[in-house]
Amino acid sequence: MTRFHASTPLKAAGLLAMFFIFIMAALCSITFGQIPTSFQMVYDALFHYDQNVTEHIIITTTRVSRTVIAAVIGASLAIAGALMQALTRNPLAAPDIFGINAGAIFFIVFSATFFSVDSLVHYMWIAFLGAGVAGVFVYFLGSMGKDGLSPIKIVLAGAAITAFFVSFTQGLLVIDEQSIQTVLFWLAGSVAGRDMEMLLPVLPFMIIAVLIALFLGRAINILLSGEDVAKSLGQRTVLMKLLIGIVVVFLAGGSVAVAGSIGFIGLIVPHMVRGLIGTDYRWVIPYSALTGASLLLLADVAARFVIMPHEMPIGAMTALLGTPFFIHIARKGVAAK
Amino acid sequence: MGSLQTNELTLSYGKEPIISDLNLSVPEGKITVFIGSNGSGKSTILRSLARLLKPERGSVLLDGHEILKLSTKEVAKKLAILPQSPESPEGLTVYQLVKQGRYPHQSWLKQWSKEDEEAVKHALRATSMTDFHDRPVDALSGGQRQRAWIAMTLAQGTDTILLDEPTTYLDLSHQIDVLDLLFSLNRVEKRTIVMVLHDLNLACRYADHMVAVHDRNIYSQGAPEDIVTKKMVEDVFGLSCDIHMDPIFGTPLCVPHGKGRQLLKEKKFTEKQRKATLVPE
Fold first, then answer.
1. What's the pTM?
2. Of the candidates A33, A24, A5, which has an alpha carbon nearest to the alpha carbon of residue A279?
3. Which ranges does the record mark as transmembrane (chain A) (predicted)?
């Protein structure tokens, strides 16, 4: 297979172009919706705010927060997916596929049902915990047995853990129907109707996680050649894997705490990026961040128009994009390993 | 620099020890080859020499220091190991792969330097991979791919290189190609080469020092011409054979007993070979 290998200046230019696309996607997300507004109106709302104009209020309250949240979640999920695919050397790895999201949601529902937790900060820590527990389970289930971590075993472990947490979540909801109202929010996965306040407690963790991820690029490149090679080159692989795992938990757990389970972004974005620029993770991480943010923003914009006057849940929208892609990677990727 | 020894080394996967109380000293500047039957633990020894496997008991000493107590990055500047059939990420180019060999020499403060670039160029030249440097590793033939990986370990700039069955899955011409490369690296650049080989005859031809691993320890070690005997092959491999002299190199040549077509009695061999090599007019 021949692949186009972009030179460094070209990759930098591409990153700039991606940034431009991201800005355009964010503008679209602020501008288009049930109540039509224009770019001019967005400009006025942001710089000459007039509280008597309904559109200005809509733009500054719901649209802007929705856009920021979609951008942050999209970027976080895409980076989490890219890191997980590197960590497990598995093309099917993603926070939703390997049960990380399901674990976070189960822990949230569990605590809402039994401990009546309703503070956002608490939900955040519970989501981190759930994501961490699910991640550790999948990793160890996937590496049990004598030949260690294998692509097939970890995919099966991910499916099993996802099914486990989803079933238990549903079980809890059957027992306690009242809590459905409180947690439906997380089950559906949505960036609509969330205030900025929901993002703020999580944001510092996500920013730190993203920064660490950006700095890990070169070390991840080494790890991609296999554990023995990485060790031989003087990398402390256990420490490195642990660090990557923690970053994934903060990115995926944080995303779930804010927006519930949004699937497929973590799976498909890293593949799109690697198809475009190759496997160098010093570039894959920033490209994934911008592509993930743009994709989720555009998916969110589309979700507003598909079944007007209703909105489609964004989780359904990304599933629509992601499912065919998943089947494609599963057929191509796992067979090749 | 780069002396490698083991001290009462015991290795195991799970409960059963694979190697017990091994005392071994790898001769510096020579080619050392481990031989032994499948599952004898020769690859296990190699992995522990490269600190990829933690010993159950005893220790591996690099320049007299216990290897697990040294900083892994410092070890990586003295000793490189090429695992058996390593896999590179899809689309990685030869140049990118070889560059990875410089990883132990870099840090946050010290990014890519001229010295790094020189080491990579030298490694590509020494392995005749310069012309391939932009090609994806996964698109190369088996022999070229192995040369690219050897180039990566060369770029690491270590005095000692360990290789776990570097000729596996290669056809005969590529096996010779890779072994010739390692031989010249040893003779020209004075690097200590330690490897596991399956082919006893090729091992006899390239090894200065041969270590026969059997029954959780060393059966015998020394120059192949001193240790490869009917009895050794019988004991270590469970194979009855005759040992002859290689007609070209003078090294030991093991001819296994067993079944097969017997042409010697027909005395037609020389005649047929002569006809087969004649160029038809």
1. 0.86
2. A5
3. 12-35, 68-86, 98-117, 123-142, 154-175, 198-217, 238-265, 285-307
